[in-house]
Amino acid sequence: PTGWRRFIHPEGQSYFVLYSEDFPVVTEANLEEVETEAQILASLHIVKRELQCHDIKVPPRCKLFLELDEDRSICNYYFVDHVSRGLFWLEDMCTEFLDIPAAVSPSHLETALEKFYWVHVEHFPMHHEPHDQGLSQLVDALSNIISHGLTDRLTSRTPTFSYTADTCKHFLRLLSGKSGQSALAFYGPWVALSSLVANQRFITFYGQQPAQLDRPQPQDTYAGDILEHRWLLTVANLMLWGIPGHYNTLLEDLYVNEPVYADQWTNFMSLCLRDWTTSMSWVPRTQKNFFSASILLANVRGGTISMAIPTVVLCGVSIASAWCLHLRHSPLADASASIGARYLRQAKSTSVGFLPSAVVFGFPKATYMWAVGFLFTQFLFVASRSVNKLVALVAASFLAVPLLFILWVISPEEAGVVPLFRSLSAWYVACTYSRAAREDEPMA
Q1: CA-to-CA distance for 245 and 412, rounded, in angstroms?
Q2: Which of 180, 319, 355, 421 is the 20 to 30 Å CA partner of 435?
Q3: Given a cut of 70, is residue 282 above it in pLDDT?
Q4: Ramachandran bin of 100, using left for φ above 0, alpha for ψ from -120 to 50, beta for the remaining angles
Q5: What is the C-alpha R_g of the chain?
Q6: Angle, alpha carbons 338-344-350 (nearest 5°)
Q7: Is residue 359 very low, low, confident or very high in pLDDT (cuts 50, 70, 90)?
């Protein structure tokens, strides 16, 4: 096409640049087609007419990007400002239309637009003139940022930097090995890294009040809806041995501010898959023993076959649920952070949060524990009808007291029957053996 220059991205995508008197124009449209070139030129004419009507002068070092939609009925556009490293339009734009999360200040919004700027330069890098000084400053800035992120990863249990320590070391080796080479030879990779750093700064509220200095630190911007029916979590914990509470805590910690870290998501899915694999491996081995024990107890004097049904059924449900969960979530073990965030966004309810997922995730282990409980109950029922009932009651008490004591010690929940007994016992002990604590006493 006349006046247009064709460039090819290192990955193979071609694009065209028109160096006009007012400002350069960039497009990915196939201008080798006459009809497409005519549509792009008509759209360029509309933009220039709007600039003249509103007496707008485009600043220096700005470029116009034009893109036709799929049916070629609408031409989208934006201006790229290489001085301020941002994008702008001729009319007001909504952040929802641009898929930008809520910003807390104009400077926070500029950080999001800077990310879009680097994404644009990453996709269209070949027509830029290499500036060694500017590139050197970019590499130095990236080295400082990644070095700080590496330190954060090595010294904090809950870092806010999204890359792991090994990845940061790889980035630093690449940055140090590229010094002195041609700017155009490796301009694209560092621009891509700058885009990721800008996105990292946006989601961690870099330079804002308050900034996110710790990964579990909640932000008001991502507060979301107030969850209702929290009492359901207490009920689920009582019915399923406290296992839903464990998974609910892990899910809430993983999705505390909506952005998801790839390594945290991988660790969580690996933990879940390991639990379900364990359920599928040791449950079948013990199910045979449970089945034999239940049938044996059902055939002795005082036993019934109906007492064996719950144990066998619950073992089968445990295996089936673990198999289904493992089959569904195995592809997500190595999924990206964006896929993990989409999964958690769909799984989180506005009324009960992650409770449904927490219940389902803990179902294999909980049903197996119920199977053990029913087998124990069956044994006590048969023993009470075969021997002296007083002896059976004493034996049951000797077994129940250690079990309740263990539950009392390991229960992590703040609400429920077991913590309630714990609180009452602590209150009784405090009233009986009250003493004044020194203010300077160190805290554990």
Answers
A1: 9
A2: 421
A3: no
A4: beta
A5: 32
A6: 135
A7: very high
Pairing of strands 4-8, 14-19: antiparallel
CA–CA dist 195, 209 (Å, integer): 23
The structure tokens 């309740």 sit at 404
Mean pLDDT, range 80-95, rounded to an integer = 91
**Locus of tokens 């599928």:** 280
Query: Could you tell me which of 111, 97, 125 has the C-alpha nearest to residue 185?
Result: 125
Angle at Cα 188 formed by Cα 1 and Cα 57, nearest 5°? Answer: 60
238: helix, coil or strand? helix
Q: If you average pLDDT over residues 39-47, what whole number do you get?
A: 94
From residue 125, give the alpha-carbon distance in Å to each of 9, 12, 27, 416: 7, 12, 13, 60
Tell me what the mean pLDDT of segment 411-420 comes to: 50
pTM of the complete model: 0.74
Percent of the chain at pLDDT exceeding 70? 77
Q: What is the mean pLDDT of residues 37-66?
A: 93
Q: Mean pLDDT of all residues in the chain?
A: 81
Is 90 exceeded by the pLDDT of residue 402?
A: no
41-to-5, 20, 111, 354 alpha-carbon distances in Å: 15, 12, 32, 51
Q: How far apart are CA 376 and CA 263, in angstroms?
A: 41
Two tokens, residue 423: 């609180």
DSSP of 39-82: HHHHHHHHHHHHHHHTT--PPTTEEEEEEE-TTSS-EEEEEEET
Residue 210 contacts residue 221 (beta carbons within 8 Å): no
Specify the DSSP class assigned to residue 435.
-
Confidence of residue 190 (pLDDT cuts 50, 70, 90): confident
State how far the alpha carbon of 139 is from the alpha carbons of 113, 147, 171, 189, in Å: 20, 12, 11, 11
pLDDT of residue 430: 47
Can you tell me the distance from the alpha carbon of 262 to that of 166, in angstroms, rounded to the nearest whole number?
14
Q: Cβ distance 77 to 64 under 8 Å?
A: yes
Residue of 59, 28, 25, 418 lying closest to 241 (CA atoms): 418
Say how far apart CA 272 and CA 269 lie, in whole Å.
Answer: 5
